[in-house]
Write a structure and sequence with these properties.
four-stranded antiparallel β-sheet, Alpha-Beta Plaits, alpha+beta, single chain, Monooxygenase, 4 helices, globular
Length: about 100
């Protein structure tokens, strides 16, 4: 069953176009992660937060990615990583055009 993973953390930047240029290769590598279907990158320069919302094929893939990603962020000096795995209510999400049927 597909799972949604939400990750957020305190992030000092860069944001916007600078972040896009700096993290392009990382974004491309994330496409190779087992079970990953898509990711939406999130950022808020005003509150100094970064993160993402991911759709995974199953809970095992989501949890494995969260463990690996948390370790990677910690190596970058980010220590307050919060990750939550959610079930998806597919019928309601599809009514609201949630991109889960891909």
């Amino acid at each position: 069953m597909r799972k949604l993973l939400q990750v957020d953390f305190t992030f000092q930047g860069p944001f916007g176009e600078e972040m896009s240029a700096l993290l392009k290769e990382l974004a491309e590598s994330i496409n190779q992660e087992p079970g990953m279907i898509w990711k939406i990158w999130t950022e808020n320069a005003q509150t100094q937060q970064g993160g993402g919302v991911y759709l995974f094929e199953d809970e095992q893939s989501a949890l494995a990615y969260l463990e690996m990603h948390t370790a990677r962020l910690q190596q970058m000096g980010i220590t307050d990583v919060r990750g939550i795995v959610f079930d998806i209510n597919e019928p309601l999400s599809l009514i609201n055009k949630g991109p889960i049927d891909k």
